[in-house]
UniProtKB/TrEMBL annotation, chain A:
One of its GO terms (cellular component) is sulfite reductase complex (NADPH). GO terms for molecular function: 4 iron, 4 sulfur cluster binding; heme binding; metal ion binding; sulfite reductase (ferredoxin) activity; sulfite reductase activity. Gene3D superfamilies: Sulfite Reductase Hemoprotein, domain 1, Sulfite Reductase Hemoprotein,Domain 2. Pfam families: NIR_SIR (PF01077), NIR_SIR_ferr (PF03460). The keyword Iron applies. It comes from the Bacteria. It comes from Sphingomonas horti. This is Nitrite/sulfite reductase.
Automatic annotation (TrEMBL), chain B:
It comes from the Bacteria. InterPro entries: DUF2849. This is DUF2849 domain-containing protein. It comes from Sphingomonas horti.
């Protein structure tokens, strides 16, 4: 994992002192809320439905046990005993007191964490494949590039007052586990014919009110030119962005309005200028950062055998573990989607428990997935049974990775001041309806994503089944969408028709699932069947 | 009726204008009639409330109930965590929210 140097630590410590003074001045009445709001947002502090909400950055979703224990401590000391992992691999706390926020940031700084770039018109926390550094199918670990870009862009004056937020994701596998094409700017590490590392670059994606998939702007960008290329993209956006219209500020709108060909032309022209400035990093800087991400000392000669005599354990292994790049190891997915629970919520005690497991069995490393689950990236197969038992004792051994109950849901109207409808109760009711594990396994991979408003924090546009909560004359109403994907086969979901009330949307989802079961060919996922037979058979099932 | 709500500045807690001060309980809210804007300006200026606004509410025997679901959820707490609502010991506390 990356370790702060003196500069990193000094920057974060100074930022805490600065914010402490800003909070003092706000409480003393020396500055107004209008003056204070952009300052607190630059430190991840929102005012939400019940209190202040603090969103803490988890760069590329990577945590150490020590950091997770600090997150637990903050939940216990300053919040109400829990935190909520988000769809951008961050964590947020919903019951924060303004007067305590500087103390929280000071505590975070002691474990090399902060809340910068989790809000405001900035380059947001850069997300990555949650299996990075462990995946059997990756070309190389993408996180050094994410860290390099994080360092290059944090507090960079040219990127401090962007037209709107800007989201970046990085992966290094043919399988997309980071929803690349739903980002403003996305990088997939590839190799050219000479085996040199570079990026396939995508630009102009995003969810929200106007969903667009990022388009492939560059098939191959030499890796060492990445900062110049990012700079060129941001300059073109900055030059044309509609700062006068909040609905047209995101870069995806500019790409759509200019057209992909013209946007690409302008970026390439600007790239030519920027390259001459020589602002790209020397290779030695990449190597300095990359050294922090050296693989842990994997043992060799380990057995691949797993004692499957306990059937519950065997089921868990089959569903919750995936292949690791090192022989004898597995990647463990820790579900935060207990049926009837709140997806992504985790108590301080559970955080401590997972931190203990990671320390004992996963080289002290953890990941947060954008699907609001946790990952133990490096577990010896011979230790899986002990890991399962420890997770089970903490109430974290649920079996549902990518199944119908592994639902992404934003906090919705239960917590969020932007929301129009509650998301969590809908997710809970759907999960409860499909609670039977045999039924879940029979249905197979099915990604349901629920947003409580058009801002789409619950990724409903990318759901095989998406649900969007809206306000219809003061009551909650839910629109159903079908056919979305955030994977390498990315596609935007399509609205089926009139919306439903809370119980009605659960019934509608079940009708869609049953239609899939009736129509599927062997081996087809829900999404495959939908794409093969089209929209109409599902619409007929849903609306009769 | 019209009532005022906002957040306590240092803690962020949801509060309601009770006529002579701010209360955590929506039951204490009073109808501000035409005096709402002036009260908001005065109270925000004195930093006794943050991000305050005026909403429509319905008078009931149990006290004012915000007209919109968002403010009803603000008044009590998240519907999915009854243990974290303002009156977690009262099983009927949330009966009017949804």
């Amino acid at each position: 994992m990356y370790k702060y140097d003196l500069y990193d630590q000094a920057i974060i410590d100074a930022r805490v002192d600065e914010f402490r003074d800003q909070v003092r001045r706000r409480i003393a009445g020396e500055i107004t809320e209008d003056q204070f709001k952009p300052l607190r947002l630059k430190n991840g502090l929102y005012l939400q439905l019940h209190a202040y909400m603090l969103r803490v950055a988890i760069p590329y979703g990577t945590l150490s046990s020590r950091q997770l224990r600090m997150l637990a401590r903050i939940a216990r000391t300053y919040d109400r005993g829990y935190g909520h992992f988000t769809t951008r691999q961050n964590i947020q706390y919903h019951w924060i007191k303004l007067e305590q926020a500087p103390d929280i940031l000071a505590e975070l700084a002691t474990v090399e964490m902060h809340a910068i770039q989790t809000s405001g018109e900035s380059i947001r926390n850069i997300s990555a494949d949650h299996y990075a550094g462990a995946a059997a199918d990756e070309i190389e670990d993408p996180r050094p590039w994410a860290e390099l870009l994080r360092q290059a862009t944090t507090f960079h004056p040219e990127f401090s007052y962007l037209p709107r937020k800007f989201k970046i994701a990085v992966t290094a596998s043919p399988v997309d586990r980071a929803a690349l094409r739903w980002h403003d700017f996305a990088l997939r590490i590839v190799r050219d014919e000479a085996r040199d590392t570079g990026f396939e670059v995508f630009a102009g994606g995003g969810m929200g009110r106007t969903p667009f998939l990022a388009y492939p702007i560059r098939a191959f960008l030499p890796a060492e030119q990445i900062f110049s290329y990012l700079q060129a993209v941001l300059r073109v956006w900055n030059r044309h962005a509609r700062r006068d219209n909040i609905h047209k500020q995101r870069m995806k709108i500019l790409v759509h309005e200019l057209g992909e060909a013209e946007f690409t032309r302008q970026v390439e022209e600007e790239f030519g200028h920027v390259l001459k400035l020589g602002t790209d990093f020397p290779r030695v800087e990449y190597e300095r950062i990359s050294a922090h991400f050296a693989p842990p000392p994997f043992e060799t000669g380990l057995s691949e055998d797993i004692d499957r005599s306990d059937p519950e354990f065997a089921l868990w292994v089959d569903r919750q573990t995936v292949p690791h790049k090192a022989p004898g190891y597995a990647i463990v997915n820790v579900s935060l989607k207990k049926v009837g629970g709140i997806g992504g919520d985790v108590s301080a005690e559970q955080m401590d428990a997972v931190a203990d497991v990671a320390e004992a069995f996963s080289f002290d490393e953890l990941r947060v997935s954008h699907a609001q689950n946790l990952v133990l990236p490096h577990v010896r197969k011979q230790d899986l049974y002990m890991v399962w038992q420890a997770l089970d004792a903490a109430g974290l051994a649920d079996i549902n990775l990518d199944l119908v109950t592994d639902i992404i849901a934003c906090p919705g109207l239960d917590y969020c001041s932007l929301a129009n409808a509650r998301s969590i109760p809908v997710a809970q009711k759907i999960a409860t309806r499909f609670a039977d594990l045999d039924r879940q396994l029979d249905v197979g991979e099915l990604k349901i994503k629920v947003s409580g408003c058009i801002n789409a924090c619950g990724h409903h546009h990318a759901g095989h089944i998406g649900i969007l909560g809206v306000d219809r004359k003061g009551t909650e109403n839910y629109q159903l969408l079908l056919g979305g994907s955030g994977a390498e086969d990315a596609s935007p979901a399509k609205i089926t028709g009139p919306g439903f009330d809370e119980d009605g949307i659960v019934d509608a989802v079940e009708r869609a699932v049953e239609r899939y079961r009736a129509l599927r060919d062997p081996g087809e996922r829900f999404l495959d069947t939908y794409r093969r037979v089209g929209f109409e058979p599902f619409k007929e099932a849903i609306y009769g | 009726m019209k009532i005022l709500t906002g957040n306590d500045l240092p803690s962020g807690a949801v509060i309601w204008w009770a006529g002579d001060g701010w209360s955590r309980h929506v039951e204490d809210a009073v109808d501000v009639g035409e005096a709402g804007e002036a009260t908001l300006t005065r109270e925000e200026g004195a930093r006794r409330v943050n991000s305050a606004y005026m909403i429509e509410a319905v008078a009931t025997p149990e006290g004012p109930r915000p007209a919109h679901i968002k403010d009803r959820i603000r008044a009590l707490g998240p519907t999915v965590r009854p243990d974290l609502t303002l009156k977690p010991a009262d099983p009927d506390a949330g009966s009017w929210v949804i």
